[in-house]
Specification:
Helix content is about 25%, strand content about 30%. With about 400 residues, it is of the alpha+beta class. Helix 8 links the parallel strand 16 and strand 17.
Amino acid sequence: MKFSVVAFEPRGGNSVEEQASDCLDQLNEFVSGESLTLKHIISISFFLFAGNRNVYHDLAGKVEALLPDGIRTGVPVAFLAQAPAGGALISAEVFFIADLQGHEVHAKRVEGNLCLVIGDERGKKLVIANGIGRDNNHNHIAGDAETVFGVMEKMLRSEGMDFGHIFRQWNYIEEITRVEKDERNSQHYQQFNNVRSDYYSKSAFLQGYPAATGIGTQAGGVIVGFFAASREGYLTKAIENPLQKAAFEYTEKVLVGDAEFRGSSKCTPKFARARFIADNESRQIFISGTASIREEVVVGENDVATQTEITIENIRNLIDRDTLSAAGIDDPETPRIEFIRVYIKYPEDYLKVKKICERHLPGVPGIYVLSDVCREKLLVEIEALATL
């Protein structure tokens, strides 16, 4: 079962409603042109120009009101306070599966959060979720994270799964690098990582941790999306980059804050650099949010061009034949990168970053948004989807 991604940016319009309507029109045109239906759409992320919580909730509500019933009740949607880098008020990224033959798609809600269950009669199953946590109170990152992971746990358990079945996860964290001036000097990203580690400790990660992105937003507290797969019918494997220390093995010197969490040291980010997933129909690699880090050190400080170049090198090395062979992926073909999502810290760097990406990845479609990255010195981060 092959995952595909497409992005839409408004062709015109002065208000968020006009621009959102145009993105939805483009989605309808795409669905019709590809002979799909809304059943084939499995996840949508809307990126909003929202600088604070009030604006974020206002814009998210306006866009949600425009969604047709088929999306509102049948597609997991996230509204993210990450402005489109090109200057629009909104843009959209859509995951879809073009061939659902032999599979049933069911939508259900867990504590108000929508997820999809896509399965066949033999027990092969996917669980797809997005936008978990949007309705949290956003008063405390750790509290939001606890709520979100609690919902995720219930979603997974209801389908006979646990956290070890997740192969791709997106983690959106308000003001990700902010350090609270309290007795713990606790950083938002570190708070999130501590909660994630606590919940992950309940599961066995037989094929390694999921591919993941941990990225900043201007508002929204903690919002998470994930894809999970049954072990029946799917083979998944974690992939690590030999040029980088595994994130879950980072040392204390790159973890921010003084706090201990439930009697243990600060917890490392629990994710793999990429995750391979295959069934009888496709072989793909979900590439985690990747930045200009070698071993565990930022390379190219204050130089966005260098950071973008190093980031792309890291991605290429991650899907190199030798790297894939080391991960136990037999007879790997050279993967083809099919889509990128690019996070840029400063708007003035957008055209420079885009030019470098287009030079190194010609013809690869993508979406560019503005957001803080998980370390203060990082200026850009790129995630990708590749097919073998």
